[in-house]
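Q: Give me a backbone?
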Amino acid sequence: MSQTTTITEGQTGVRTVTLNTGSVYTFNSNESTTLEKIPIIDASRIWSEKLEDRQAVAEEIREASRNIGFFYLINHGIDEKYADEVMDQAKRFFALPEQKKMEVFTGLVPNEYVGYHPMECYNRNGWKYQDLSEAFNWAYDAAEDPEAVNKDEPSVSIWPSDLPGFREGLYAYHTQLLRLSRRLVRIFALALHLPEEYFDEYVKRPEAGMRILHYPEQKHTVEEQNGIGAHTDVECFTIVTQDSSGGLEVLGKNGSWIKAEPIPGSFVVNIADCFMRQTNDFFVSTVHRVINKSGKERYSAPFFFGLDRNKLLEAVPTCVNEENPMKYPVMTNGEFYAWRTNRQKSTNTYNADAGKVET
């Protein structure tokens, strides 16, 4: 799930991005570059039985997470057949008539981000034209989690009728990513110089939503429209599966947009706001966007991994001290999620027609 931003342009041409938390970022141009590179990390060592192997990859992730907040993950151990199936199901769903997709409109589920988000229903940056994308989101389901604490917990997701194999195909991949994320969160603990099991209690019942997105090719200029406007993600980290079209761009510290070009078989992993909050800004949740000028339709499938909604978002002990106290008020992950969800969904231009504007 993303966070809404607004953009203004000063007299010098420098653009200012103001997030709805009040954080302000600037970028120098709407043009993106490949001159700066996003780190590539070999994930095979996260499965090693040797602690020193896991610590070594954790140090690489530590540096990427604090310097740019993005990295590629290769050799992660998940069979590509699961991603291929999700991409096929995405094309199948988005090809449905609009009326059919609106049966699962997200406005029907207050306080949650699940369901269908129609084409051009958001304008995250206030451009001339609405963001050119549509999405379908689904949530964690204990019945699909081999390690679930309570298999009887109901799910908040809503599903289209008469689409056999759709739910099954999406959850098959979701379950694989859930397993990977639980291993990654242990590596993140090592990256923060904490005991490896530090976050285990936080993710027995994780916040683990996922979405599929469809981006038509943009005909308007990047000055007038984005596929998804500049934003940050909400949870701890996001694992992105993207097709070969490209279009994902990351805002570097020097104010330039960096292309996250597709690497076959890889994931793009980015730090999100909850982790930045918990690490007291040691990890950085970096602004990113999608511009689809590939000449073809783009599909992607981000997986958002976070903490149990009942757990407190407290600073990890290695990221605070007397000279560097906690910068954020303590709240539960559930409170943080609900606040962000409702702020984002309230900007959905389809809400008024559906009579479901959130407050």
